Amino acid sequence: MSSEVKIPSLGESISSGVLAKWHVADGDTVKSGQALFELETDKITQEGVAEADGVISLKVAEGDEVKIGEVIAVIAEGAAAPAKDDSEDDAVAGSGDPGPDSAAKSTAVSPAVRRVAEETGIDPAGVEGTGKDGRVTKGDMLSAAKAAESAKSQKPASAPAPAAPKAEVKTQKSSSGEAKQTRKKMTPLRAKIADRLVQAQHQAAMLTTFNEVDMSGVMALRKKYQDAFVKKNGFKLGFMSFFTKAVVHALKEVPGVNAIIDGNEIVQNHYYDIGVAVSTDKGLMVPVVRDCDQLSLAGIESSIAEVAKRARDSKITLADLEGGVFTITNGGIFGSMLSTPILNAPQSAILGLHAINDRPIAVDGQVVIRPMMYLALSYDHRLVDGKEAVTFLVKVKQAIEDPARLLLDL
């Protein structure tokens, strides 16, 4: 009995993807629930798991484009991978008469021999076996491949050279032999990110306004209650929950920022699902934290940590990325001092956070050193006027500099 491994449905808008990585090899024994492969689409990266125990036979290679519902492997249920032995693990698994019959060789080969055959194009049936009872081993296949390569290299110069296969990765080397350039195909997710960023700049009248915020109040609050917070919740209190709450407060005060343009209509949002940009190995993703107006600081911190982990572990879903009304991106964790974030369409604004640095500022006529952060609000000027954008950013600044405002809703 066998079980087919198919590409799962990931949503109506996704019809295909690239099989980015196999977590198992051809001929491996797999268990139900075991991660088998990593599928990368233009929106998310998703892992596929085994639905049965048995030996897996792979049907597609890494890097191949696959369709939703396509069979990419078959699991022979109840089977077990052959035990490996240094002298015979790569031999042909003959049946009946163990003699070196070529037909028997060609119909039953070990996974290792089959992989070499697929890679080199050499038929095991035409290879002289040196294993027990004349069975073909992996070493026999490699020797045959080496002999074939040697024969090719000794062809007369007049013979036409075979066409080189199209390489997935191209490398240009310097005179010292070191690689100067490496080319590889852009992944669907990276290509989609690039396309969306360019579209955002072309389709919106994007403008950025700046301000700076004194982080002393939030930092003092965190320091005072951090131990008690960790003891109660099991994780630390960060800065993102304060900024998320401050953004929700500012969206309520300046509702024009919490709207989008849809054709010739302005759609006003009355909910507060905030996107948080997360850097992953596959590219930037923006999972959404739902109902931030109803969550506590601990609830926001927990939700951000959860969706960020799923994004980095390639377990994020389309539902996690949809429906945000506003985005926060924090380049400060990488040391950025100042930037102009690009809109996350169709949203009308995005807040960029930056590094916290001690700087001299004037307070009550005195020069003091305070931990300061630059804030950047990029917005769609077609919908949001300059007065609204500046007011919004001031509201965020006030809430962060005096966190009590968040409790009193001032």
TrEMBL record:
Domain of life where this protein originates: Bacteria
Q: Which cofactor does it need?
A: (R)-lipoate
* Alphabetized InterPro entries for the sequence: 2-oxoacid_dehydrogenase, 2-oxoacid_DH_actylTfrase, Biotin_lipoyl, CAT-like_dom_sf, E3-bd_dom_sf, PSBD, Single_hybrid_motif, SucB
Q: In which pathway does it act?
A: Amino-acid degradation; L-lysine degradation via saccharopine pathway; glutaryl-CoA from L-lysine: step 6/6
Region listing for Disordered, in residue ranges? 79-113, 118-137, 144-187
Which residue intervals define the domain Lipoyl-binding in the entry?
A: 2-76
Entry EC number(s): 2.3.1.61
Return the SUPFAM superfamilies for the record: CoA-dependent acyltransferases, Peripheral subunit-binding domain of 2-oxo acid dehydrogenase complex, Single hybrid motif
Q: Which reaction does it catalyse?
A: N(6)-[(R)-dihydrolipoyl]-L-lysyl-[protein] + succinyl-CoA = N(6)-[(R)-S(8)-succinyldihydrolipoyl]-L-lysyl-[protein] + CoA
Where does the Peripheral subunit-binding (PSBD) domain lie? 108-145
Q: What binding details are noted for the cofactor?
A: Binds 1 lipoyl cofactor covalently.
Q: Where is the composition biased (Low complexity)?
A: 144-166
GO molecular function of the protein, one example?
A: dihydrolipoyllysine-residue succinyltransferase activity
- Membrane as a keyword of this entry, yes or no, is no
The similarity comment for this entry is: Belongs to the 2-oxoacid dehydrogenase family.
Function, as annotated, reads: E2 component of the 2-oxoglutarate dehydrogenase (OGDH) complex which catalyzes the second step in the conversion of 2-oxoglutarate to succinyl-CoA and CO(2).
Q: What is this protein called?
A: Dihydrolipoyllysine-residue succinyltransferase component of 2-oxoglutarate dehydrogenase complex
- The primary gene name is odhB
